Amino acid sequence: MAMKIRLARGGSKKRPHYAIVASDSRMPRDGRFIEKLGTYNPLLAKDSEDRVKMNVERVKYWLGEGAQPTDRVARFLEAAGVTEKTERKNMKKAEPGNKAKARAEERAKKAAAATADAE
């Protein structure tokens, strides 16, 4: 059985709160889970102690059983000191595309030609 430690959403529209749960990866996000391990309330301030609450002993147990944490839960575990910090991939989302790079090169060439003509 493929186990995941993930978030299950609760709360009303635009007022989310999440339960940190251990579940079978084949179950729906908000569906059946095996054990509730903690809570996460994104509406609280980032420095609030109540923002993320976890039963660290049970989380360690499930990690020992082979459960894989999702990206967000892995960040919570790193902040709590349960797991060591891992390096994440930079997906280069902020880097411009090829066409934008070509346009920028053209503009730079025109600007250089204009300054050369002015001299």
Structural notes for this entry:
By secondary structure, the chain is an alpha+beta fold. The protein has a domain of 78 residues: S16 Ribosomal Protein, Chain: A (2-Layer Sandwich). Helix content is 34%, strand content 26%. The chain is built from three helices and five strands. Strands 4-3-2-1-5 form a five-stranded mixed sheet. A hairpin with a 2-residue loop joins strand 1 and strand 2. The chain starts with a strand and ends with a helix. The model has no long low-confidence stretch (mean pLDDT 89).
List the helices and strands and how they pair.
Elements: E1 3-12, E2 15-24, E3 35-40, E4 52-54, H1 56-64, E5 68-69, H2 71-80, H3 98-118
Parallel strand pairs: 1-5
Antiparallel strand pairs: 1-2, 2-3, 3-4
Keywords:
119 residues; alpha+beta; S16 Ribosomal Protein, Chain: A; 5-stranded mixed β-sheet; elongated
Overall radius of gyration: 23 Å
* Largest sheet features: 5 strands, mixed
* CATH fold category name of the domain at 3-80: S16 Ribosomal Protein, Chain: A
| Secondary-structure element pattern, one letter each | EEEEHEHH
**E-strand count:** 5
Q: What share of the residues does DSSP label as strand, in percent? A: 25-35%
Helical content band:
25-40%
- Tally the helices: 3
Which CATH-level-2 architecture of the domain at 3-80? 2-Layer Sandwich
Distance from N terminus to C terminus (CA atoms, Å) equals 74 Å
The first-level CATH class name of the domain at 3-80: Alpha Beta
Overall pLDDT confidence:
89
Strand arrangement within the widest β-sheet reads 4-3-2-1-5
- Identify the overall geometry: elongated
CATH superfamily of the domain at 3-80: Ribosomal protein S16
